[in-house]
Amino acid sequence: MAVTLHRAPVADIAPLTLYRILWMRVSVFVVEQEAAYPEIDGRDIEPGAELMWASEGDDVLATLRLLREPSNTRIGRVATAASARGRGFAADLMRAAVEILDAEAPGIPILLDAQAHLASWYGRFGFVVSGAPFAEDGIPHVPMRRTRLTTERLVLREWTRSDEDRAFLFDMYRRPDVRRYLGNGQVMTDPAEVDAMLDRWMGATDGVLGVRAVETRDGRRLGSVLLKRIPWSAGAGDGQPRDIEIGWHFHPDAWGSGYATEAAAAVLALAHEHGIRRIVAVTNPANTASGALAQRIGLRPVGETADYYDTTCALYVGEVDA
Asked: What does the alpha-carbon distance between residue 164 and residue 315 come to, in Å, rounded to a whole number?
C-alpha cells in the first residue's frame, strides 16, 4: 500500500486519524523517552498551526507540527512510530515542511528545538545550531534555525560550520582587498577566528535579522549580506533603539557581476515587508564602490556621521512610510 503525506489543521483531521497521531506522539515523547510532560500542550490549536503526517492505509507512520509565530515559523513534535523507523518517513515530512514554509514566507526563519543527538540530522535540511544547549525534561536540546531567500540568480541561507563554509569565510576575510574598509582593516590570520565570528553573527539573529550566506543557484559561495542592529558610538543615540544596518561583504572573485546588489536588494525588500521602516548603511568614506551600491538599492546619501562604530562613516538611509 502506498505511503501518503498529509497536512491539515487539527479541526480538519478525522477524529480517528487525530487520535492515532496524538497516541503516537505520547508513545514516543512520554512513554518511550520517559518524559512526564504535557504532550498535548495547547499549541496544536493555535491560529495557523497544522499537523503533517505520513500514513499507510489507516496507520500513522510519522508526524510533525507546523506553528506560525509572530516573527518566524516553527517545526516541532517530529516523531516516527517505532515500527516505521529507518524508512525515511520523518525526512520526507521535513523536506515537505520546509518547502511549504519557504514558499509561504520566503526569508522568514524556521526554528526548532532539536534533541542534541539529532542536530546533524536536522542539519541535512539546512538547520544550524543557533544558541546555547539546554535541557528539556532532562533531555539535552539545542535551538536550531533555518532561513532561505532566493532571487533570480542567488540563494541566501544560514552560514553553517561545515568545512566548506568555514574555509570560504577564512579565504575571504584573509584578503587585504576585502578587509581594506572593514574596521581597522586587519585581515584574518587564523582559521579559528571564523568560529568566533560565526558566534557573533549568530548572536545577531532575531526574526529576519541576521548574517546570510550568499551563493549561486548551483552552490558557489560568493559572500555575505548583513541585516543587523548597528551599535551607537559612545554618547550617540540618546537612549534610542539601535538602527538596523544593511551591509555586504563579498569575495573578490564575485565582484563586478551585480551579486551584492541583487542580494542586498532582496534583503532590503524583506526587511521592509516585515515592518522594518528605517534601514541604514555605513561605509568608509573612501569606499565609493560600496556607497554606489547603497544608492543602487534605493538608499540615499546623507553625508558623514560619527554616530556609529565610534568612527566617521558615510551614511546612507532608506525609509518607507508606515
From this structure: 34
